[in-house]
Amino acid sequence: MPSSDSRGSSMPFASFRRSIMSIRSEQVHSVELNHDSTVQEIEQGVFQNLVATRFQELSVASGDEFLSIAWIRKLLDVFNSCQEEFRIVLSNNKELLLKLPQDKLLADYFDRAIKALDICNAARDGTGKIRLWQKHLEIVVSSLDSRQKTIGDGQLRRTRKSLMDLALVMLEEKETGTVLSQRNRSFGRHNKTKDHQRRPSGHSRSLSWSVSQSWSASKQLQSIASHLVPPRGHEIAATNGIANLVFTMNFVLLFVLWALVAAVPCQDRSLQIHFTVPRQFSWSNALWLLHGRIMDEAKKPECRNSNGLLKEIYKLEKCVHHLTDLIDSAQLPLTKDLMEEIKKGGEDLSAVSEVLKTGLTPLERNLKEVFRKIMSCRAEGLELLGSANQP
């Protein structure tokens, strides 16, 4: 099985990021062909085209790549490129943004952004859970030493025990989601005082300081989706198009977080979030296709009770179940065919373990970068809005 690191993807991440820069210059040239366009319209057109192009690339991923670690990394990379372009447009239109009702639109976006930070932290915890499973996988693989010509009773017992330990850890995460939730590793804040450790767990909105036991990824997503509707014509006209710009970034934020929660183990995760992909934007078709593909994956029988839709989680669970069935049915002395099948099952688990081992760290870096981009844009935007209230 190929590694999910960037080296194993069909498009290297360095090239993927360079293409973001080249496509911006191409889109600027394309929009500028309309000489009647204002500077604001050109910039907003570039942003809308960037969103459409980037998500179109994601929507045509092959079945093997879709919802893999490599694909999720590309999804986060696309978000970062959209967030950066959004920040540039805001920075170039400061005076326009300080007027009503544009400032209210921005304030609403920044409110959603702070909620997004909690989901970034919850997803980071999710990768921590997968890393724990990977450590257990290594124990399973080591108990089935492929260099041994035969498999004896001792190996079978060790393998059975290590498989049971792994299954229990995964089941506990699926049912409770509390093993790592009480030691959240926030990207943004580090506080090791006793006061922080004793912080009550009943708060409903953690604001990325910690994710409490009562926190819910599905409720947080629903809160972000609440009242998110496309602007009407008079609202677009009254804001010189800013309403469309902010709505698009709001929807990109919601969609990326929804896909992330679908893929990665998160506390109280659910895909049943009430939002509809609008059909009047250049990016609508790509996001509509992605939404449908993700929902189709979730409806598959083998995914309904999964810890997440991440492709590597599916492969892990499938390999564990298969090897467990082989070990449970084994009787000594093993037949040659059964011995070879058990060894093959161990090799498959080893391949999954290696993919997780090489892919999780880059994925966590992408999550950290998303967190940083959101924080940076929000801080810059709030400073801008604050300056409007100064004499």
TrEMBL record:
Any one cellular-component term (Gene Ontology): membrane
Bilayer-crossing regions: 242-264
Subcellular location: Membrane
Domain of life: Eukaryota
UniProt keywords, alphabetically: Membrane, Transmembrane, Transmembrane helix
Region (Disordered): 181-207
Compositional bias segments (type: Basic residues): 186-202
UniProt membrane topology term: Single-pass membrane protein
InterPro entries for the chain: ROH1-like
Family statement: Belongs to the ROH1 family.
UniProt name for this protein: Uncharacterized protein
Organism for this UniProt entry: Solanum commersonii
